[in-house]
Every structure is written in structure tokens, then in C-alpha cells.
Amino acid sequence: MAYRPRFSFTVFVCxxxxxxxxxxxxxxxxxxxxxxEQGAFVGNIAEDLGLNVWQLSARKLRLKSDNGGxxxxxxxxxxxxxxRERIDRERICGPDDKCTISFETILENPSAVHRGKIEIxxxxxxxxxxxxxxxxxxxSEASAPGVRFRLESAEDADIGINxxxxxxxxxxxxxxxxxxxxxxxxxxxxxxxxxxxxxxIQSSFQLLFTATDGGTTQRxxxxxxxxxxxxxxxxxxxxxxxxxxxxxxxxxxxxxxxMKVKANDMxxxxxxxxxxxxxxxxxxxxxxxxxxDPDTGEIRIEGPLDFEQANGYALDVKAVDHGSPAMTGHxxxxxxxxxxxxxxxxxxxxSASNQIPENAPPGTFVTLISVMDxxxxxxxxxxxxxxxxxxxxxxxxxxxxxxxxxxxxxxxxISVYNIHISAWDEGSPSLSANITIEIIISxxxxxxxxxxxxxxxxxxxxxxxxxxxxxxxxxTDPDLEQNSYVSYAFLENQxxxxxxxxxxxxxxxxxxIYALRSFDYENxxxxxxxxxxxxxxxxxxxxxxxxxxxxxxxxDNAPVIISPSEQGGSExxxxxxxxxxQGYLVAKIMATDADSGQNARLFYQMVKSTDPxxxxxxxxxGEIRTARNILQSDTTTQTLVILVKDNGQPSLSSxxxxxxxxxxxxxxxxSESSALVKDPRFFTDPNVYLIVSFSCTSAVFLLIxxxxxxxxxxxxxxxxxxxxxxxxxxxRGDALGTFNGRTVMEETLRYPGTSRVARVPESHxxxxxxxxxSAKSDFLFLKPCGAPLSQAQ
Length: 793
What we know:
The protein is mainly beta. The strands form 18 sheets. It has a 5-stranded mixed β-sheet with strand order 1-2-8-7-4. Strands 9-15-14-11 form a 4-stranded mixed β-sheet, with no helix packed on it. A 4-stranded mixed β-sheet has the order 17-24-23-20, with no helix packed on it.
């Protein structure tokens, strides 16, 4: 009975318990045509098993198919067995005459197993097809009428009556078509030469070759027969059999001999020499699995065979002679593949996702693992196992396993688990299969960003360029994706009562800190800020670190000379008696530098002088002292240029110009001598010599002094009157001339009878005034300013 798709079909069902009493209970058989629509009715299992519909769910009816449940399904609410998808018989069974799908229905309480088969009937859904669009024949003109030429057969994927049933050719006076059936039901078509050919009259023929199947609605296919008329070689090779049959085990090794074909040619010489080849009718896959020796006709295994993929192969071979033109004979080879037990268990993992959150509790479902074995009996019983040292376990069910979690996870410790699943059957020897599944532990935001250090020291050179990067803080978060995306910001800080944002800014993406202004070490030496690192998780987590910004000094301040000072740009003036000996302290240069450290360390250097041999300056103290005794030949005014420079890189400097006047006034000299005598540290040999020299000079020139005493007395009175005034105090620094860091004040020293004014520093001063007795002697008597005369004496 033929079936046409898209129409309702009658399904034949036969329960073996009803149709054939005494057979095993539970055997069912259904028959349906191929190409039925998805969801098409197959049968009613509830009625065929004699069960009520409610018993199907109560007894947990399950359907198990040899094809993994791919084609069938059962509705537990009404017991109807239907198709899960459209069935193509040719894809399932290929050229086999019978095509069935086996299934089992399993019931519980009580347990029962009912086996069944569904037979798939063929429908005429495939048209005959030729392997090529044309068949080329070369026929010698010497061929006698009645010669037959084997034509390539058409293929039809259908079976039975739906396969190729007849061949026809277009009308021709020279050719006709002859067909005959083999014992196996194959139709062989041959082109029959009806009368002799004459190449000179007609050298070629073109015929339409049509193959028609036997279906109710016939289908057909066509190809062109192109005939070229040639001379000579009028006998084609003939095989000793029209069909060769053989068998081979599926585990046969490469090179195993399957069979040998043989063809004969009635011609002689090259026209009788034969080469064996697979014809184009042989499937490409089959040609890759078998090799035909072109000289001997022996067929050997070339590739691996698999009974589960194909249980047999049909090959077309041809024998081609070496005549001109060459002639060809054809034959068919059928090779049956013998099955052996070579199937290992198959493991299939069904999971919507391979990710599990790290906070998943124990017992969380991971995946469903299905196992099957194409073998039967003990060889088809499969067991599964996973390693024991992982936080997962397998729970066994009737026909599958469930993988669940057994412990808590920490993604930061282990982020991926590769679970090795082993499956083995109970055959002898046992066959096994292994599969590894990857389970990814997804991240949750359970880690705060971490700074490399809890506090950082940033060293910034003063006078930095605003907007320049000064430091980068980095925090890491072991979480993933947005949970690990870290942003940076300053916490609220005050720097000199101003927000930190007026001094610094931070790149929120990479933690780079930029200075917004130029720092001045002399105003701001250091300050502290707090940087917060915050992730993008939900909820977000954060941490902070302290940053200590230290401003480094730069040599940007030149030394400032504070004593002696130059007022209005004029040169300063100091005095030294001509009687001053070597080492006499003339003046002290005092300077300061606003920088610190080496940048504030000052050095003094004399860069220019009237007489370089007369004075020197202390490199570190700034004291100007006589380098030798002042001679009568020395100029009374000595000009010195003193350079004060710091120790920075590059060094900065300032200079002062000093005029030192050498005084000839003996009174001034005596005053200086008296001042030095009061401090034993300066009572040196040159001073003693000076006093003795003055004494001898006084004795020798006593007469001259007596003569001039009258004039001298008058002059001394005016001096006494001037020195008794508090304004005429000689304020002199102590002999050490040290500088204690106090602000230096200046006093003026006025000499009677001259317009010269000298400025001296105030530090470590002592104040004296001339006594009236100075007018009565060649010596200068001094007293503290404002003290009674009796005290001075």
C-alpha cells in the first residue's frame, strides 16, 4: 500500500498478546508511512496495554527508544504515541528493505517492560537520478547489429515498487533499449544496435535516456546518451558475473582482501588488455573505503569500516580495454559489513549553563548526565564515576545521573573545575569512555580593593609644573569583571584650611595623582591625604590608603646678605687701624638662605680686592680678617667684593662690595687696643709689640708733644665734649664676631673732625665713651656710656 504525505494515514497496530497468544507479553508492533508530519498519531499505548489513562502517570510510564527518544513521544494524559519529528526512511535505514524503530515502555509499581517496534513504510518521495547529465558512448562502425552496450543505471533512494521500474530512450532507427531483471531485482538497461552504422554518413547520435519508478504517482529522471561512431575494436570486456557479492568484518584492517572481479575481452593485443576501475556510479564514500587493483581486479579495504554507520556498500566496477576506441564492461559489487562488539559507552551532558556562583549552597544542581551503549545485554550496562577530591558528587537515577555540588566554593582560590567523568560497561573485556566537563565558578563581589601599601610617601620637588603627574596608587581586586573595576577618589581632606581638591586631583580610572598647583617648600613642606579605592560591584566595596605628600626643597632662593647691608645700592664701609696685625677681625659678612639642607649651606669667597694679600675671608664664617700686618705702604682705602654662594645645584649667589679704610688716628688705634686687651683671647704678641712701640714713641717725642700740648689741649676739650654725649658711643662686636641668628641692627660711628660714617652690627655689642682724662694724656680712657666718671677711672 502506498502512502502520500500531507494526507491522513491508517496505522496498522498489532498487539502480539492479541494477535499471537502464547508470545511474550508486551510485544507491540505499529506500521506507519515515512514523511508523516510532526505530532502525527502512531497508536494508543494505554488501550494497547489495557491500561486506564490515569495509570500511565501513576505507574510513571517512560518511553525509551533505541534512537535516544529522538523520533517518538507519549502523552501521559491520553496515552497517545506520536511522532516527535518528521521521519525520513532513507536517512534512517538507507537501502534496507525493512526499516523499523524499536522502543520500550517502562512501568513501575508493579514494574513491567513492554517492547515494541514501529515499521516505517516507504513512500515515493524520491525521483530516479543519474550520476551524470550525459552518458558518452563510443561505438565502432564495425559493430554488427545486435550488439548491446551497457548503460549506467539510475539510482532511487526509495525501495520496492517506488524504486526504478523501467527505462526508455527516445525514438531512433539505429538503436533500441533492452532491459532485463537480475535475480536480486536490479534492472539492467542495454543499448541495442539495430542496424549497422556508417560513420561517413552519420558520426554521432544523441538520445534521451529516461528512468521511471513504479510509484502510484510516477517520478522520473533523464540523462543524455551521446554516441560517437568509431572504427575497429568491436568487442567490449565482459565480466564473468553481473553481480559480485562478498562480506567483511567491520574491524578488518587496512589492506584486507574482500574479493576479486574478472572480465574477458574477445579481442586480441591492446584491444584485449583490461584495466579495472570504479565507475562513477560508485558512491564517493565507498570509493574511499575500498581500493580496486587496476590490473588484477582485486578489491581491498582502504579505510575504516563501521557497521553502525553503514551495514553494506554497493559498488559499480567497470573493465576498460586498451583498444581505440576503448570499450567498457560493467558489473555490480555488493559488500556486506559484519558487526562486532566495538561500541564504547556514550556520555552526554545536558546543561543550560556551565557556570555556578561561588556562593552556591551545597546540593545545587549542576548538570544532567545521560549514558548509553549501542551494544545490548551486559555490554550495554553502563556505570559512571567522578573523582572524590572535588566539591561535586553524582546521584544515580534510572537512566541518567545528576551532578550536584557538595561543598562551598571560593572563586579566588579555584575558578574552574575540569570534572573527569568515567563511564564503563559490564562487557568482557569492559569498554570505557571518558569525558571532561568544565564548570566555571562565577564571581560575586566578596573582596574589597586592596592597596599594595597602607600608606605611601610621595616626594614632589617644589616649583613643579601644574597638571603634571606626581604619583600613581594602585589597588587590586581579586574579583572579576565589574566587581574588580576599581575607581579612585580623594576622601574629604583639608590642607591649610583648603580642600585637597585645590592642590591635587586623581584620575578615577587608573589612580594617577596630578598636582593642580606649583608647590613652594618654604610655605608648605608636607601634608597628608586619603585615597579611596571603590569597586563597581553591587553593593560596592571600598578601602583607603594614606598618602603623605612631601615637598622637596629646590635651590630657588639666592643667599640674602643681611650684614653689612647696602642701602640704596651704595657700597658699605668698614674701618681698620693701620696698627692692626695679622688675624685682626675687620668685619663679618652675615647672610641667610630661605632654602634648607645643602641648598642653605653658605660659602664666602673674596672675588676681588685692591690688595689680595692683605685680607682674607672665612669660607664658612664670613669673617674678614687681615692676612698680614698693615704696612705704611698699603693704600688707605681697600675695596673688597665678597661673593656669598649656596651649595645647591645649580648654585645661587649674592655679592657685596666693601670699602675698608685704614685709619691713621692713633686714638682710634689705642681704643681698638684697649678693647682687645680687655679680652685676654686677643692679647697677642703683635698687640704687645704695638703697645711697647707706642710707649717708646711717646718717650722719644716727649719734647715735641710738650710743644704741641697747648694745641692738643684745646683739641681734647672739644673731643671730651663730643664723647660725653650718648650719641658718640663706639659699639663694637665681640671679638668672636659670632652670629646667633637674631636680626642684625646697625649703629653709626662718627669720628670727630671727619665726615666719615661707619655702620657696625649690634650683635654682642658693648658701649663705651671717652673719659675727660683722655685730654690730659696720650692714652685714650674709656668708660661705659652714661656711667659716672669715677667708675671709668
